[in-house]
Every structure is written in C-alpha cells, then in structure tokens.
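Possible regression after last week's pipeline update?

I re-ran a chain I had predicted before the update to compare outputs. Posting the input and the new output here so someone can diff against the archived version. Not blocking, just want to make sure nothing changed silently.
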Amino acid sequence: MIFKNVPELGPEERALPIAKYYDIPVYGPGPREMQILEKYCPMDPAEAIPVERFTDLLNDEYLNVELGCCQMPDGSGYIASYTHYPHCTPQMLRWYFRWLNVHAEGMPKGSNLKYKIWNPIGHCDHGFINEETKSGGIYQVEALDMGAGDEPFYSIRHPFDLKDYGLTVEREKELHAAGCFIDCAVEKFYTNDEEHRLLPGTHLTLTMSRFCPTGGMEKRTREWIGYGVENGKIYFDKETPDYMFSVEWMKQVLFHNITEAQRLDMILPELYETYKDIPDDKWTL
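New output (post-update):
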C-alpha cells in the first residue's frame, strides 16, 4: 500500500536539504503485519501486562502477544506495539530522537521537517519543551489517522524515573550493558493553539529498545490508556475520552506505529551519516 495523500510542503521547508526524504513514498503495513492486527485487535486481556506490573516489559523474554490491543476488564485501554528496524543501530536511534527535537535554521515556527520526514502523513511538529533536553517534556503535534481527515492533536510526553516504580539500579545497569535503552512517559493532551490548555486524557507508555536476534534493533512498547503515574503511585484518569478505549482507535495507533517505523528504518542510516557530526540546529559545519 502506497499513500498518495501526502500534504505539500511550503516553500521554506521545500528549500531545506532534508526535503528530499519527504518525497520518498509512504508505505503502509504489509500483509504479515495486517494479519497480526486482524487476529490480535482485540487480543485476550489475559495476555496483557497489568498496569500494576507495567515494568514487567523490561524482562528479557518476549510475551505471547507483542502486537495487539484490547479493552481491559476495568474499561481502560491496552496497546502492545512491536516494531523492527533491521538497518538501524542504537547509536542511530539515540541520535535521531535527540536531533529531531532541535529546530534547525530555516524551519518555520510550528513546523518541524525533521519530524515530518519520519511520517509525512500526520506528523507536524515535535520538540523539547525547554528547548534543550527531554527532562522538561517533549511535545508533539500529529494526527494518527494517516490522512483520513482528523485534526492534529497536541500532546506532551512527561518523563519519570522508573526507579520510583520498581526498577532496581542493578537491573538498569544490566539493561544498559546489553545495549538496551528505555523510554517511559506519561502523555497528556492539550489544545492545539498558543494557550495549550490541558484536556482530558492520560496514557502511560513504556518502551524497551534493544538488539533484535535477527539483526538491527527492535522496539517493544506498551501503552496503558487511561492510566498515569505520579509521586510513586499509579492513578486512573476517569476523564480520558471513551474513544481512546475503543479497539478501532487503538488499532489505528498500531497501524500508524508500523508505518512510521518502516519509514524511519528506510531513511535513518543515510540521515545519520550525513548529519551526525553537524550541530543539531545546523545543516552544515
């Protein structure tokens, strides 16, 4: 499947050196992934990691369902996402997830071509809240429906310390020594305007990125929709919109995740070699 509904770039972004990546065709998930989504959307909730044991994702073994979604018995949502990057290394992924958050010279305000080339259909803007590191949170503006007509939403991923929720220092060292890196956040939603007023909705997310046995890197991600963490405790956000708990919406998230992962694996090796030694806010030395 090749998507044809790619928005046109404005003249400022078209003049940037990475615009050529934007023009690479956008391919949707292949038949293998689509068959898995059909089988495991919904998955059996008994195969999900309960939110009270969310750090179980950091164990070494694969789970019975690595790609699927369901509504849990308490009404919350659960997404298991698995993506493979056969041509990428840990260095490439670490570099990109810092580099894309720094707006470079020539980029118009409110639009980030570094993020758009990752998925031209739906990605709009991405960056560090404090303009320096992820410690202050990372904002993103995107639509998940692959061009079906939804308005982009503004969200912020607020990081937290997993050691407040059971991860030991020893296990953290083991994961780092094995080449793994972990990303955890509570995602909150805001109005997509200058005021960015807080909206209902909370997602707890955890990702383990590590070497894949068949080559390259793999990302194992889980989302507990409706849940968040704060001050060492897990809480349920009763105001989370009902549509976020629907299998249809969660399946859309997985479709989006697979599409953008395939694309990043396609463009990242060349991006990395071209820009890794250049300051993040520049295009040339």
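Follow-up from reviewer: compared with the archived run. The first strand starts at residue 2 and ends at 3. Marking as no regression found.
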